[in-house]
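Structure ticket #2291
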Amino acid sequence: MGNGHQVTNNFIAFQPGPGVGITAYPNSTQNIVQGNYFRQLDGLSVDLTYHYGTQPSDFQFSDGPNPPRNSSQRRRDSANAAINAPEFDAYVFSMSGATTQVTGRADPGSDVGIYQAASGKHYSELGDQLTTVTVGEDGRFSADVSLPEGARVSAIATDSRYGTSEPSPAAAIGVELPPEPRPAYQPVCQDPPLPPEIVAAEPPAPITLRVPRNIHFALDRSFISAQSANILDQIAAAMTQYPSLTVELEGHTDPRASNAYNQALGERRALAARDYLLQQGIAPERMRIRSFGETQLISNRPDVVDYARDRRVEFIFSDTRGLDIIFENTESDLQVE
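Resolution: structure written out below.
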């Protein structure tokens, strides 16, 4: 938040929200984000908020891709004066020898940084910066990049008057294949064949996870105890056995601190659990972290046992095949102060 900050030449990775979130409060402009390398984010590499929220979650998670600026009011209502993200002319750019020319539109007079992007997502993380080009007064830009077929590119625009934009959707490098021709229609003057017999498929049996769905922490700590590590080992084994499982790790605290402190503590606890599972070989894209701080207490009683129950990370599993999952709660690692 604020004006005139610079975030340059950093490696930014493994975050539950955007790589760099710039809030619109209070009237934040001229914040420059260039030359950074991003990986494994749950949000955009650069996210300009479009509201005046001041809660911790507004700074940590931001609000995703902004629409194109469509009025002068959005200069005031969005971070970095709502500088538009660049727009590529195509989703796929054809190669010409060893180089590829990428073209598009952006705010006139801005500098567009072209980045190699991670694969697999519409808004891919920005990787190596390939080149920077200046946008003409007609709002057009063009750049030559040397990348192999199948690579992806994204771009951000920077105007010294306003700051840096959000990234563009990724475009691919390669030859766009023509659509397959449709077979010619041949009229047939005879009775159609009978449809094959339809056999009802048996619904898949629900996955029953005989593992706990939570771990607990000591007062004001995010350290994984030996008892909690045993629980995490069971969770890692279940996720290894069922590769279609994904999980959201939700960090919680007891109520005895400020809202902002507990929000950060809940996130540290979720990160600690995720880092442990990473060490057990669980892929990072199968896990997402979130902090609720003190907002979801087990009980409202001022009791040390209930406080111990509040200090937890909950594991919210889902299965990409749409199967039901049965959970089990545990308190074997409860740490009463």
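Closing remark: The helical segments are 56-61, 73-77, 226-241, 259-279, 304-310.
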